[in-house]
Specification:
This protein folds into 2 domains: 344 residues, Alkaline Phosphatase, subunit A; 108 residues, Arylsulfatase, C-terminal domain (2-Layer Sandwich). The protein is α/β, with parallel strands linked by helices. 29% of the residues lie in helices and 17% in strands. Strand 6 and strand 7 form a beta hairpin. 48% of the residues are buried. The protein is globular and about 60 Å long. The strands form 3 sheets. Strands 7-6-5-4-8-1-9-10-2-11 form a 10-stranded mixed sheet, with helices on both faces. Strands 13-14-15-16 form a 4-stranded antiparallel sheet, covered by helices on one side. Helix 5 runs parallel beside helix 7.
């Protein structure tokens, strides 16, 4: 009898401990990289770049091998992350910088809004790019916010770059939200190292309360600025000088991911911190627009940043939560960056309003990763990307209307792509292409003529999805002229 009572007491103690732990708000961390290639991490490809800290993160969590972002370019991809929704719902199909184009986005509840309301201290360290941007006379992305800056989107703290790209060297101009206003200053360190330092200091300051850290590195986006020591540490004699600089940038990211995870362990916070690591879109490679080429490798996938091929929208994705998700596992279900919003909100115990809950396109990933649910988190995902072009770079013609869009839909093992279309995809000169990703992940063998019924099914599903989205907003002539002027800047 005594033995039975002891067993029951132990079980009750364990249950009480578990319930107390479950009731505790977990710390939440997003680590986002910028334009990194799918195969440039050893956890996802055969890379020459040493990434021991990211490898360790993957080994202690779940690697999602069919994970996607909502767009193959920065702004709409980050909109999908912060809103848990397709950016097409805001009428956004490319990078946009004018308030007229962003009126729907500005009305959205962000993940930071939800977590702040839940009592979290929230911080963005790194790249924002969701309030418009233009360069000042020095070339810095500090010309001011054209619309709602980070502190109006749920972030208590912000330090970083406001726009899409910047230099990495010590002395680079940055912005910080402090004492109720934005202040300019020069980075005291190489930018990736500085962002790592700022992230660790935020964790240290908030170790006694729940926090949400959005650490958005702008590396390894161009320009290629790698530290000499990191370049020397890349043990590959055969790579080009530019590839060595890129590899050095990834090595710096990895080192600072290690610093953040080490700080969590040092403070005893690791067991109560849910961390998601992924990239904002496909790597720029050697064939993307000149300003964003960075030698990234997306193999085995076709294409790069700007493309709706797998190389533009499929990304390495790691979810890490010690004791809460299985360590060292691989999950091949279809996952989206939109899922971070509901996954984090659920983990935080946030009571989403009906209006927010009913509009989310993302889903809570935890039941799938724990094996409580089977199948794909998403039966279908769709993309519509306005073709990126600069003045006189592309001319309209019978098979290339202007503006043009690339369309894509994934459903299970199937992926359909329709290139260079008017918004509604009515240009019959360019038919849908069909790929079986289970056998052809590189999208090399078009099966559209063999499976016409599947093409018809996916086409109908895509256009049913598209009809829910607003059309792109036409810009006033003055805004168009300003955009052309920016495009001519170096």
């Amino acid at each position: 009898m005594k033995k039975v009572l002891t067993t029951i007491a132990a079980a009750l103690a364990s249950l009480i401990s578990f319930c107390g732990l479950a009731a505790e708000k977990p710390n939440l961390v997003i680590i986002l990289t910028d334009d990194m290639g799918y195969a440039d991490l050893k956890a996802f490809g055969d890379s020459e770049i040493p990434t021991p800290h990211i490898d360790k993160l993957a080994a202690g969590g779940v690697r999602c091998t069919s994970a996607y972002v909502t767009a193959p370019i920065c702004v709409p991809s980050r909109m999908g992350l912060m809103s848990g929704r397709f950016p097409a719902r805001f009428g956004v199909f490319n990078n946009v910088y004018a308030p007229e184009q962003n009126r729907i986005w500005m009305e959205q509840t962000t993940l930071a809004d939800v977590l702040k309301q839940r009592g979290y201290c929230t911080a963005l360290v790194g790249k924002w790019h969701l309030s418009g941007n233009h360069r000042d006379s020095t070339g810095d992305d500090l010309g001011g916010f054209l619309f709602k800056p980070p502190h109006e989107r749920g972030f208590d703290e912000f330090v970083g770059i406001t726009g899409g790209m910047n230099t990495f060297w010590k002395g680079t101009g940055l912005a910080r939200f402090k004492d109720g206003k934005y202040q300019r200053f020069n980075s005291p360190d190489y930018l990736t190292e500085f962002f790592g330092t700022e992230a660790c200091e935020f964790i240290e300051r908030n170790k006694s309360q729940p926090f949400f850290l959005y650490l958005a590195f702008n590396a390894p986006h161009a320009p290629l600025h790698g530290l000499d020591d990191d370049q020397a540490a890349i043990d590959a004699k055969y790579i080009s000088p530019d590839r060595r600089k890129y590899a050095a940038m990834v090595r710096s990211i990895d080192r600072n991911v290690g610093r953040v995870m080490s700080k969590l362990r040092e403070l005893g916070l690791a067991e109560n911190t849910l961390t998601v690591f992924f990239n904002d879109n496909g790597g720029g490679g050697n064939n993307a627009a000149e300003h964003t080429r960075n030698t990234a490798i997306n193999q085995p996938y076709r294409g790069h940043k700007f493309d709706v091929w797998e190389g533009g929208v499929r990304v390495p994705f790691i979810l890490h939560w010690p004791g809460r998700v299985p360590a060292g596992q691989t999950f091949d279900g279809i996952v989206s960056s939109m899922d971070v919003f509901p996954t984090f909100a659920k983990a935080a115990g946030a009571d989403l309003t009906r209006s927010v809950r009913s509009t989310l396109d993302g889903v809570d990933l935890m039941p799938f990763l724990r094996g409580e649910k089977t199948g794909n988190p998403h039966e279908t995902l769709c993309w519509q990307q306005q073709v990126w072009s600069r003045p006189n770079e592309r001319k309209p013609g019978p098979s290339f209307p202007k503006p043009a869009y690339h369309l894509a839909i994934r459903s299970g093992q199937w992926k359909a792509v329709k290139q260079d279309q008017p918004f509604d995809g009515s240009n019959d000169a360019r038919a849908w292409e069909l790929y079986d990703l289970s056998r052809d992940p590189a999208e090399l063998n078009d099966l559209a003529t063999e499976f016409p019924d599947k093409v018809k099914e996916l086409s109908e599903t895509f256009f049913a999805w598209q009809k829910q989205m607003p059309k792109p907003i036409a810009l006033p002539a003055a805004v168009k002229a300003n955009s052309k002027a920016k495009a001519k800047q170096p």
